[in-house]
Specification:
LpxI, Rossmann fold, LpxI_N, 323 residues, DUF1009 domain-containing protein
Length: 323
């Protein structure tokens, strides 16, 4: 376990340096020194879903001393959103503050008190709830400066607000590199030639939708867009399609053309597969290296059992298929 943690810390130093979150002189996480505090403190802002729990589990491992005489290399605390984050996230041993949506000042005050250096945002927020939030004065200032309330625009403004107050914003995949979708077909079911044509078509449509900062996914069938992801999110998109298109279809989920991988990265998991099956769809295509995959092995096993194909593509792969 100790060797694995050292290896992970090495990767973490390299990834955060490449993301511009550290200088080459300290590589973000210097080796722990006896008698000194942890090198960095991560503030995890937790929403709904499995990802915040996965991050808390990983950070809890890093929060343990690698040597008997050394402090942990990473310490972490959690700001968890009420009505969104799983209540068990408080069981990972970190100091946890429960907040309501829009309470940015409480989060920032808590992070400063705890000595947080790096902020990671993970998990979903029910976007419909945005309209019922009671924002604090900082949240009001953030929103007042926006031209619109689309996801990417809003999240970049929130990220900028944290960075303006001395925090560095990191990506979930910086701490869990295996989170990113591997290229290729994952399970035993292979798309037909017609389905590959739909995937390539859906890819173009999803990228266009993302360029407008509307959503990250579309459902397509026979080169027709059946539905576009918007404020309701992926699961409700699939359910909506299932009401009128139970004869097939493919969910294509990709990153936006200028996606900031620290913010609202496309995410799929076992629940996505079950929702697709319930809606009568045929499969899932995601963007390799730019999609979070929750519990990959379980997801593939479920897709195989339910008869769905799952593929992770990139533009080069799709171009090769068309040539």
């Amino acid at each position: 376990m100790r060797g694995a943690l050292k290896k992970l810390l090495g990767k973490l130093r390299s990834r955060l340096w490449l993301h511009g979150l550290a200088s080459p002189h300290d590589a973000l996480i210097p080796e722990p020194v006896e008698g000194e505090a942890p090198a960095i403190c991560v503030g995890l802002i937790a929403g709904s879903g499995r990802l915040p729990l996965m991050l808390a589990e990983q950070l809890a491992l890093l929060d343990k001393p690698q040597e008997a005489s050394s402090p942990p290399a990473v310490r972490f605390v959690i700001a968890a959103h009420r009505e969104e984050a799983d209540s068990t996230i408080a069981d990972y041993g970190a100091e946890t503050l429960w907040v309501r949506l829009g309470q940015f000042k409480r989060i920032i005050r808590f992070f400063h008190e705890q000595g947080v250096t790096h902020v990671v945002m993970a998990g979903g927020i029910n976007k419909v709830r945005i309209w019922s939030v009671r924002p604090d004065s900082l949240a009001l200032r953030i929103v007042a400066g926006l031209k619109h309330m689309h996801d990417d625009h809003l999240l970049r403004a929130i990220s900028d607000a944290f960075e303006a107050r001395g925090f560095m914003v990191a990506a979930a995949a910086d701490f869990i590199p295996a989170l990113l979708a591997p290229l290729g077909q994952w399970g035993s079911h292979t798309p037909t030639e017609a389905q590959w044509t739909d995937i390539a078509f859906g890819w173009q449509m999803a990228k266009a939708v993302g360029d407008l900062d509307i959503g990250q996914g579309v459902v397509v069938h026979d080169r027709v867009v059946l539905a576009v992801e918007a404020v309701e999110g992926t699961d409700r998109l699939i359910k909506r399609v299932g009401k009128f298109a139970r004869h097939g279809g493919i969910l294509v989920k990709v990153s936006k053309p200028d996606q900031d991988m620290r913010l609202d990265t496309p995410t799929v998991g076992v629940g996505t597969i079950r929702a697709l099956h319930e809606a009568g769809l045929s499969g899932l295509a995601v963007e390799a290296g730019r999609t979070h995959v929750i519990d990959l092995a379980e997801m593939v096993a479920e897709a195989d059992k339910l008869g769905l194909f799952v593929v992770a593509c990139n533009q080069k792969m799709l171009d090769a298929l068309e040539s």
